[in-house]
Write a structure and sequence with these properties.
The protein is of the alpha/beta class and about 350 residues long. Helix content is about 40%, strand content about 20%.
């Protein structure tokens, strides 16, 4: 897809719901050949708009003085559009340096509100589980069993996420069929995160990058991320460096044989190209053991049956799916579990 079309599509279908500043900036970039030229100068893997937006935010949070910071802080959308352009040209080399070394890592812990019932659904048929989170970033969703989902009826206003002793409470509007209960309905007896560039929560720059990947208007996500980071520092989950495709077979082989392994991707397969997605699937099929691929991805990214019609939403919803590989060469079983907001704000369960 041409860069201008990519930015325009992003503006129309990405941060449309509750990130109006980035939506306005994206429309502006789509119509600005000079800004598009800067984006084109970055590595192709970073051409998705999230990367440039995050790189700018990363430099601002690092202390660069520019009027864009005030525009962001005060929610001045029109001013932010103008100052974003100014910032990109003032700090072009610094931005390209960031993009040469970092990839988007939206380790959105709100997705645990959707992951939890899906894990309970798998456990109801499979028993004790192990969780391998591919593209884990800082490993925040590896603590899914330390979250409590506060189910909000569709006609009520969602509550703010809150810390509750050693648990993170996540509000989630639930519609459709009642989903399975969360913990203690499942038990994770093994867990591991795999990421090409794992986030060290004790490293200031790495943690700043994680924050930078959150859309600028979404203060609730920023607060939720801060609470999740604190929880992860108290209860660190094992995370290691590795490639989502090349490292997958050896990593799967480490999981204990007496558990059912769930391989989780949340908006990770979206960033793999067609060849990489095929290799990822082949690694799961060839694991030599039963494996369930639990995915929360953009529609069409994972080979799943046609899902039911999604609810009306300003943002394109994600498909929550399960592909179960029997481990003996037989074809996998593919099921759609529901539709969900990409950041876990709501879940429409359908099984």
């Amino acid at each position: 897809m041409a860069l201008d079309a990519l930015w325009r599509t992003y503006a129309d279908t990405g941060p449309a719901e509750d990130a109006p500043t980035y939506r306005a900036i994206a429309h502006s970039v789509a119509d600005d050949p000079d800004l598009l030229a800067v984006a084109a100068a970055a590595p192709p893997a970073t051409h998705h708009p999230n990367h440039l937006l995050a790189a700018v935010r990363f430099l601002l949070l690092g202390g660069l003085d520019h009027p864009l910071a005030d525009a962001y802080a005060n929610g001045e959308i029109d001013r932010a559009v103008v100052q974003f352009r100014s910032f990109v040209f003032d700090h072009r080399d610094a931005i390209l340096d960031v993009l040469a070394h970092r990839r988007v890592q939206t380790n959105e812990v709100g997705r645990s509100a959707v992951i939890a019932p899906a894990l309970a659904w798998v456990a109801s048929a499979r028993g004790p589980l192990g969780l391998l989170d591919v593209g884990t970033s800082a490993g925040l969703n590896l603590l899914v069993d330390r979250t409590r989902v506060q189910r909000i009826p569709a006609d009520e206003t969602g509550a703010e996420p809150a810390a509750e002793s050693d648990v993170l409470v996540l509000p989630c509007e639930v519609t459709g069929s009642p989903p399975p209960a969360e913990p203690p309905a499942y038990h994770l007896s093994w867990r591991l995160g795999l990421d090409r560039s794992p986030i060290d929560l004790d490293d200031e720059a790495s943690t700043r990058w994680l924050v930078s990947c959150v859309w600028i208007d979404q203060h609730d996500r920023i607060e939720r991320l801060a609470a999740a980071i604190e929880l992860a520092r108290r209860f660190p989950a094992p995370v290691r460096q590795g490639d989502a495709v090349a490292s997958l077979p050896d990593t799967i082989a480490e999981a204990p044989a007496d558990i059912h392994l769930v391989v989780l991707t949340t908006w990770v397969a979206f960033y793999l190209d067609g060849r990489e997605r095929l290799a990822f699937t082949e690694a799961l099929a060839g694991a030599g053991r039963p494996v369930t691929w639990l995915s929360l991805e953009h529609p069409g990214v994972v080979d799943l049956p046609a899902p039911p019609t999604p609810r009306e939403a300003q943002i394109v919803p994600s498909v929550l799916g399960a592909v179960s590989f029997p481990g003996d060469g037989r074809p996998p079983n593919r099921e759609v579990l529901g539709w969900a907001h990409p950041h876990g704000r709501w879940l429409d369960w359908c099984v």
